[in-house]
Amino acid sequence: MNAPLLRSRMTVRLADLGAADELARLDAWVMAHELGLPFHRPDWLLAIEESTGQKAHCLIAERAGDIAAILPFHLVHSPLFGRALVSSAFAVGGGILSVSDAATRRLAGQICELSERWSCPTVELRGGAMPGRGWIEKRDSHANFLKPLQTDSEAELLAIPRKQRAEVRKGLENGLTIVTGREERDLEWHHGVYAQSVRNLGTPVYPKSLMAKVLQRFGDNADILTVLHEGQPVASVFSLYHKGVVMPYWGGGIWDARRLRANDVMYFALMDHARGRGCDTFDFGRSKTDSGAYHFKKNWGFEPEPMAYAIHTADGQEPRDINPNSPKYRAQIALWQKLPLPIANFLGPWIAKGLG
Questions:
Q1: Exposed, middle or buried by CB within 10 Å (0-12, 13-18, 19+), for 75?
Q2: CA separation for the pair 81, 354 (Å, rounded)
Q3: Mode of pairing for the β-strands spanning 82-87 and 122-126
Q4: How many angstroms separate the CA atoms of 90 and 112, rounded?
């Protein structure tokens, strides 16, 4: 009578991310799960570790030899921002991917135990199945923007609300050139534009090696689209492709991009490019509620979908604060915006790789 119960007992363990068969099994499970994201995939975990030094891990809950849930995460350490277990680092999504509430609770409990054992006062789950009691849940700080792609370019243009459509049309008249690729040139263009963009916003730039490793590990499931004006890059976006969805992930433009409407042309061109790749959905990604990016995406006709985040802290500890909109960083952001670009690009990656 007890044998079937023993065989169905749930077990939890850390995955062996150095074993090729383990990685293949995890990746196949993520790809088969309806809610699986690029940020759950082993390629994301390992690209982050290889480019930033933040150690990758993955908890697995199994029952009778079958995966019931996974929790990919990084142990993020920063001299400035402290230590945290983050699912997944440098991602807008992640968290627990599960087939049952019981498996979700087991992994939530296990990562809390690991946080104590590894002296990490904060655990951050970015989306996924919510772990429930004992966790701080945030459901109104961020929203995601997702909608279907249209059947062709003209239909896509007409689907954009009138005012934003006018901006796209103006941009298309500016003689801009679109180049898409995965070569070193594309990476150089992208990181150069992105570095200027985030410096102008007052935040440190991620290391170029981060983009390079994601590009390498994701292969044809990642590429870079760059907008050129008179042969010079003015806007660029790094995108991921996942189960028919295009996800523009790291993007930005130089100061002149606004005058040229280069960002508007960039996203419209990406919609065309993604449709040509067989995608049927455009995921405009996460933005802070009521931010400039939030309203920009609404102007394109996307409706915000609230995102759920969960945080657990050790007794008496405050969650780490890496939000660039936090009042405590206002002076630092104002100073960073004034830094010469070479200095910002030299210091930025060292700071940014500890943000996770």
A1: buried
A2: 7
A3: parallel
A4: 20
Sketch out the chain's domains with CATH numbers.
3-139+308-320 (3.40.630.30), 144-306 (3.40.630.30)
Could you tell me how many residues make up the chain? 356
Six token digits for residue 102: 């019981």
**Measured between alpha carbons, how far is residue 148 from residues 145, 241, 245 in Å?**
11, 14, 9
DSSP E strands in 182-303: the ranges are 222-229, 232-242, 245-253, 281-288
Rounded to an integer, what distance in angstroms lies between the CA atom of residue 306 and that of residue 309?
A: 10
Helices (H) and strands (E) in the chain, counts: 13, 15
Report d(CA 353, CA 49) in Å as an integer: 10
β-strands 281-288, 245-253: how paired? Answer: parallel
Can you tell me the distance from the alpha carbon of 275 to that of 27, in angstroms, rounded to the nearest whole number?
Answer: 25
State the Cα angle at 290 between 285 and 292, rounded to 5°: 70
Q: Per-block average pLDDT, block size 10, for the chain (356 residues)?
A: 58 97 98 97 98 97 95 92 92 94 96 94 93 88 92 96 96 97 98 94 93 98 98 98 97 96 97 97 90 90 90 79 67 83 87 83
Structure tokens at 17: 């991310």
Q: Give which of 66, 57, 27 is closest to 242, Cα–Cα.
A: 27
DSSP 8-state symbol, 39 = G
The answer to whether 26 and 71 have CB atoms below 8 angstroms apart is: no
Cα(351)–Cα(340) distance, rounded to whole angstroms? Answer: 16
Hey, how many other C-beta atoms are within 10 angstroms of the C-beta on 133? 6
User: What pLDDT is stored for residue 240 in this prediction?
Assistant: 98
Strand partners, 150: none
| Closest of 133, 122, 130, 74 to residue 318, by C-alpha | 122
Please name which of 91, 126, 105, 69 lies closest in space to residue 307, comparing C-alpha atoms.
126
**Measuring CA to CA, how many Å separate 20 from each of 16, 27, 214?**
9, 11, 18
